[in-house]
Amino acid sequence: NWVVGSAPQDKVMNIGKLLQGKYPEVKEPGYHVWTNPVIMEDVHFEVARRLAVLRPERKTYYMKRARDCIDTINQLLQKIKVCTKETKAVVIYHPVWEPLFKSLGLKVIKIARTPEERITPRRIVKVVASARKLGATLVVGETFSDRKTVRTVADEIGGKVLILNPLPDEDYPTMLSEWGRKICSALGGEKR
User: Fold this and answer.
1) Cα–Cα distance for residue pair 103/97, rounded to 1 Å
2) Which of 3, 51, 70, 100 is the most buried (most CB within 10 A)?
3) What is the pLDDT of residues 67-77, one digit of tens each?
4) At what angle do helices 121-134 and 147-157 cross, to 10 degrees?
5) What region, left, alpha or beta, does residue 168 occupy, with left being phi > 0 and alpha being psi -120 to 50 degrees?
6) Per residue of the chain (192 residues), what is the pLDDT tens digit?
7) Beta partners for 141?
8) 191: buried, middle or exposed (CB in 10 Å: 19+, 13-18, 0-12)?
9) d(Cα 125, Cα 81) in Å, to the nearest integer?
10) In what order do the strands lie in the sheet with 107-110?
């Protein structure tokens, strides 16, 4: 907030505030906008519109880049959905992945319901029961989280572990492509 607070407010874009009318879920504590590809499409357009106000002579360029990114996101989503069409549910360790998997039409079973939740044996028993009931065979963890719990749940359901990095190293389409490739590979249907 100290960086944003010192910047001219007409040059600050609060994505959560901008999108909370259309997507009320962004107001939820800990909601991770960037893991929801559908919302990210709107983010790309909003950034392009804002940049065009600052540099009107570049409006055509900004809008074309936004459209190109959105087209790429849609193509990637369709490819990932082909790989996940036989999957009904996934288990996730951290809620960061909920928006991505829900946007793919999958039920999400959360090990940790909040980022701060301490996982108990009772919680693991409930997650395993839900995963078995829904036929989940994939347990997704993060590069920086507890892998022992993820492995335990996967072993109990006879599933696979997939570790993903939720922090972008590249632009959004590149990151989504990497997530999709790894998800499809883990589910046995490599994305082409």
Assistant:
1) 10
2) 100
3) 999 999 999 99
4) 40
5) beta
6) 455 566 676 667 777 777 888 888 888 877 888 899 999 999 999 899 989 998 999 999 999 999 999 999 999 999 999 999 999 999 999 999 999 999 999 999 999 988 888 999 999 999 999 999 999 999 999 988 889 999 999 999 999 999 999 887 888 999 999 999 999 999 985 443
7) 163
8) middle
9) 29
10) 107-110, 89-92, 138-142, 160-164
Which residues does 165 contact at the CB level (< 8 Å), separation at least 6?
A: 142, 143
| pLDDT tens readout for residues 115-160 | 888 999 999 999 999 999 999 999 999 988 889 999 999 999 999 9
Degrees to nearest 5, angle at CA 71 with 61 and 180: 130
**Among residues 90, 83, 99, which one has the least CA distance to residue 184?**
83
Q: Which residues pair with 90 in a beta bridge?
A: 108
Task: Please classify residue 158 by burial: count the beta carbons closer than 10 Å to its beta carbon, then call 0-12 exposed, 13-18 middle and 19+ buried.
Answer: exposed
* Amino acid letter for position 112: A
Please answer whether residues 165 and 142 qualify as being in contact, where contact means their C-beta atoms are separated by less than 8 angstroms. Answer: yes
